[in-house]
Design brief:
This protein is of the alpha+beta class. The chain folds into two domains: about 40 residues, no CATH class; about 100 residues, no CATH class. The chain is built from six helices and two strands. Strands 1-2 form a two-stranded antiparallel sheet. The chain starts with 12 loop residues before the first helix and ends in a 9-residue tail after the last helix. The N terminus is likely disordered.
């Protein structure tokens, strides 16, 4: 009996597996699969393949639905599923509807939008481990001007005296 460099004679099983070529590992996996034997490594490999394949969705991702919880008239009032490839775009567009509504409301009631920001939230699927867009939040601040308020009238008077004559047109 001869012992060569590629021989696994006398080595523990874990070393034999480490020394095996990719072809040998593939053949052994096929034999296990044909015999109906599934190891934890096989399950992990299948999970990784699913994660890497963008078209493959787990059951949790397939059943995920999005719904709006605000009292405004915008999209997603009833829960609906969105394909993973389109979720980020659809959530951003939905949050932009809230921003547009804030500007409309400010214009109708003699107000001014001081700040409008959108935050897109992400989470990790517990089943497949993928990161997904879980929703969004829109924050707006609107200042309303009350022309009947004596303080507002006084502020306008002070501004008019402060800014009067600041810009002079030489050609006039």
């Amino acid at each position: 009996m001869s012992i060569g460099i590629n021989s696994s004679y006398g080595f523990p099983d874990y070393l034999k597996e480490m020394m095996a070529t990719p072809y040998q590992k593939e053949q052994e996996a096929k034999m296990r699969k044909a015999a109906g034997i599934e190891t934890p490594a096989d399950k992990l490999e299948e999970k990784i393949k699913k994660r890497c394949d963008p078209t493959c969705e787990c059951e949790t991702c397939k059943r995920r639905k999005y719904v709006d919880g605000s009292d405004e008239m915008v999209s997603f009032k009833s829960a609906q599923h969105i394909p993973q490839a389109a979720v980020a775009t659809r959530v951003r567009a939905h949050e932009q509807e809230h921003v547009s509504n804030a500007y409309k409301k400010a214009a109708q009631d003699n107000g001014k939008v001081l700040q409008a920001s959108v935050a897109i939230h992400t989470a990790i699927c517990p089943e497949c481990g993928r990161t997904y867009v879980s929703g969004g939040t829109t924050t707006t601040r609107i200042a309303y001007y009350n022309e009947e308020n004596p303080y507002q009238k006084d502020l306008k008077l002070q501004d008019s005296t402060k800014y009067a004559g600041m810009n002079v047109d030489k050609n006039a």
